[in-house]
Amino acid sequence: MSGDLRGELVSLQRELHRIPELFFREKETGRFLQNILGGFSTPVPIARTGCYVDLGPADAELTLLLRADMDGLPITEESELPWRSTLPGQMHACGHDAHMAALVVAGRLLSQAPPHGLRVRLLFQPAEEAGGGAQACIDAGVLDGVDAAFGIHIWNELPIGTVALTHGGIMAGVVEFTCTIQGRGGHGAIPHRTADPVVAAAQLVTALQTIASRFTSPLEPVVVSVGSIHAGDAFNVIPDSAELKGTVRTFSLAEQDAVEAHLRAIANGVGIATDTRINVEWSVHAIPTVNDPAMCELVRKSLDRMTGLKKVLTDYRTMAGEDFGELARKVPACFALVGSGNADKGLTEPHHSPRFAFDDDVLTLACDLHRAVAAEFAETGEYLAEG
Asked: Mind listing the pLDDT tens digit for each residue in 353-365?
């Protein structure tokens, strides 16, 4: 890639980094994108603050969707960089600015040299971080006529020059659960006249750990973590109620459903044993992102068209979540993690850190990857559409 194109990528990323907006509030980001996209196509608004454009003939034999997410995070950036966030308490701390910049430039280049027989749909999706953005786009018809989808996430846990392409689950489903324990409060010196919700909460936290260790296969990764417990205010008073919150992560919907069933059964049992009532609220923030094997193999072949790659990982997965899984549930899809960390440059801060930063070389790799996948899909994607 020429120095001019790299400069364009970096400039776009910097501009977007300055305006990180939260989910479904990406109004300035949307206007910025539509202004640029309008230079080579006709943007179509979608899902309140997102947009998409189509490149290539409307009657093309194949249609491939390429997706980038748009939203930032409610994090105060700790940086003195000239392009740091201009919005107090908000930051692009996950790389979505890089995703947008890479897809914009890839789209412009594809519009100038469109792959034969292919229509490419560029989706700029709002509200990934809080969930709901992908489904809102689907509900608005973004997958109408689409044969397959591809997306990326830059990933600081992997070094620059590395791409993770994993068949099956690559990013976990994300569930938030809340257990509200209703007991019967009283004096801490007379516990036998109470139904202690604190003891019930303690038993529940311990019992939930058996879900991963005893109720699910050791070959299927499952995480059940409790991150919050609240009960009472006084040292000598047993409270009426307690509440705990946690998260569940799995790589399949079947495991997600199984964990829910076990969690509810355990909560019911602890409630009976402690004479308390335990109500469970189960909220799915994102389903697992599961790569279609055939689409994943097509993307792997497309890497032969690229330069700058050093390593391809075929068994890397992360318990972090992504709502790209909603797209992947509807059409054959592949989601790739593109290494963006560089220890030599001190660029190792994790995603969602207030000091998050990445190696700018990933912008070129991400842009080239979108273009390579489009070219490969134009040549060999017909069997996916037929399937």
From this structure: 999 999 999 999 9
